Amino acid sequence: MKIFRTFGVYLSQVVCSCALKKNPIPLSVFILLLAFWSSINSAEEIQSYDLEQAISTALENNRLRTISQQSLDIAEAQYQQARSTYWPSLSLNASFQRRDEKAIFEYPEQTFNVAPGLLPPVTVPAQDIEMLGRDTSLYSVEMNYPIYTGGKRSSLIEQARIGVDIASKEIRRTELQVVQDVKRYYYAAIYTQQLKELAEDITISFEVLRDITQAFYEGGSNSVNKLDLLQSKLAYALAASTLSELESKHKSALAALTFTMGLNWQDVIHLSTSDYPSPVEEMSLDALIDQAMQFNPVVDQLSLAVEAFDAKVDLAKSDYYPTVGLRASFDRFNNDLDGGLSIEENERSWQLGIGMQLKLFNGGRTKHQVSAAKIARNQTDQKRLLVKDSIAMKVKHLFIQTQAARKQIQITDTAVDTSFENRDLSNRAYQTGAVKTEKVIEASLLDAMVRASHARATHDQALHLAEIAYLLGSEALE
Question: How confident is the model at residue 273, as a pLDDT?
Answer without folding.
Answer: 86
